[in-house]
Task: structure prediction
Amino acid sequence: MGGRERSLRDVPGSSARLLPQALAAVWPRNDYFAALPSETVSVRVLICDPMPESFVKLLKERGLEVGFANSPPPQLLKELAVGYDALIVRSATKVTAEVIEASPKLKVVARAGAGLDNIDVEAAARRGVKVVNVPEAVANAVAELTLALIFSLLRSVPQAVESLRAGRWDKRLFVGRELAGMTVGVVGLGNIGTLVAEKLIALGARVIAYRRNRQLLERETARIGATAASSLEDLLRRSELVTLHVPYTPETHHLVNSTNIRLLPKGSFLVNTSRAWIVEGRALLEALNSGILEGAAIDVHYHEPPREDWEWELIKHPRVVATPHIGAQTREAGERISQLLAERLLAALLSERAKDLSGRARGSPYVWATTST
Result:
């Protein structure tokens, strides 16, 4: 690919200036977007979910033809995607094997965020369709929401606000817990989990962490000053609060379930800002009702929006803090997504050999996306 390599921070107006220093290590060094030719590239891109206007502008400036859809279901997307070279999706749109097979021109599926559970990555690899995502772009936003949910749980903030708005002065009812000195279990040490752990340690919490890759677990915990758990079960037994930061895969389905959730100390807390199905929903509800959990906070749901009675029972539980999947919804994350996703999309469309944009070859020649735990 032509053009000299430049740091993203060297690009005028780059959103890299918005990055917290903690993210510098995972932000890509090469600015592929700035290095691309400015002349028209004859490709058609379908944006399937709402994206910032700045992202659309970046694509149009490179001469791409941009189409729009409103989070279409897979059956409709099969019809809409025909003739497009790339699909841009957030979490609402599912790119199934049927969609991929019905799109002969499709070259790239770009995920504006981290999770890939709404994309059939294996079907994409079979077809030679590249999949790109931008997990580092949303990491800080999700990490900060995680902290907000933790404090909301420990200090009963939503309940206190609701009580006061109802005209009550229930000061003595809201005796909370302090995060400093608390043992917090962090499950998953990818981009988001590592940031959460670092922020928790800075606030005085004792962090115990777990990830499947033992070598990476020991290296990261040593670097940030956390303790490495010997297993998930070990982490659950030792934690007063557990926060989940793993991708949703067949291996992580019901990672926390009716059996191992009982290992948590009575009166502990659980926070999930990753994917709902990582936790067995009815087991979570039972743990709240039985007192195993003093509280839970969730930003992700089993159906979005929820549609089953038990889901609403969980959301409306008096000791649950629930938000409508707003983890990545910050202005700064939106700017980072726009810049980095445009870079990766265009590099994927123009590159002859798929590679991770940070320079590390991926296991599949067609999948560029990152799914570290």
Summary: The chain has 13 helices and twelve strands. The longest helix spans residues 135-155. The mean pLDDT is 87. Residues 138-322 form a domain with the Rossmann fold fold (CATH 3.40.50.720).
